[in-house]
Automatic annotation (TrEMBL):
Positions of the UniProt region annotated as Disordered: 1-77
GO cellular component: mitochondrial inner membrane
Catalysed reactions, semicolon-separated: holo-[cytochrome c] = apo-[cytochrome c] + heme b
Protein name: Holocytochrome c-type synthase
Species this chain originates from: Mucor velutinosus
Similarity remark: Belongs to the cytochrome c-type heme lyase family.
EC number: 4.4.1.17
Class of enzymatic activity (EC top level): lyase
GO molecular function, one term: metal ion binding
Keywords carried by this UniProt record: Heme, Iron, Lyase, Membrane, Metal-binding, Mitochondrion, Mitochondrion inner membrane
Function: Lyase that catalyzes the covalent linking of the heme group to the cytochrome C apoprotein to produce the mature functional cytochrome.
Length: 169
């Protein structure tokens, strides 16, 4: 079973510690956190209002932080077979089990009237993607996880076809 790593990738803007501030609420029923000290121009509705009147100016991002999973590396292009970035088939540096790199073609068409089908990731690509996203994943379970992933996608596609068969397109 997969577990999620508790530490985000370094430099990821989703986990920027500089923007976090201590929060307090107006009580157990208030779902909105508010900063402990709001500037006077933003607290026009009084001290109990957690929402600022004026939107704060966003900080401009000067560069993409290294290792951030939200941004693909330079030179990555979309694979025309599945419209996804080319996923590495190389093992992780600390990987102890050799994972298969063969990919399975799904029964799901890419476009109506087209013979092209979506392509599922190989176990190695699946493992690399989980690691890139910060998931701690037992290598010995990856092939089973890929089988389940593919099975669920195929079953979901059959449900879509069943639903669509009720309507004339």
């Amino acid at each position: 079973m997969s577990t999620r790593s508790t530490t985000p990738p370094p430099g990821c803007p989703m986990h920027n510690k500089e923007e976090e501030a201590p929060v307090a609420t107006d009580g157990p029923s208030c779902p909105m956190p508010k900063k402990q000290q709001a500037p006077p121009q933003q607290a026009e509705d009084g001290p109990s209002c957690p929402m600022p009147k004026k939107a704060a100016e966003p900080k401009p991002m000067t560069s993409i932080p290294p290792g951030c999973p939200m941004h693909k590396a330079d030179g990555d292009e979309l694979n025309k077979l599945n419209m996804m970035p080319n996923l590495a088939q190389t093992p992780q540096s600390d990987q102890t089990i050799e994972l298969p790199t063969e990919r399975v073609i799904s029964s799901i068409p890419k476009a109506k009237g087209d013979d092209a089908r979506w392509e599922y990731p190989s176990p190695q690509q699946f493992y690399n993607a989980l690691r890139r996203k910060g998931w701690e994943t037992p290598e010995e379970e990856i092939e089973t996880m890929v089988d389940i992933h593919n099975f669920l996608n195929e079953e979901a596609w059959q449900e879509v076809l069943k639903w669509e068969s009720k309507y004339k397109w």
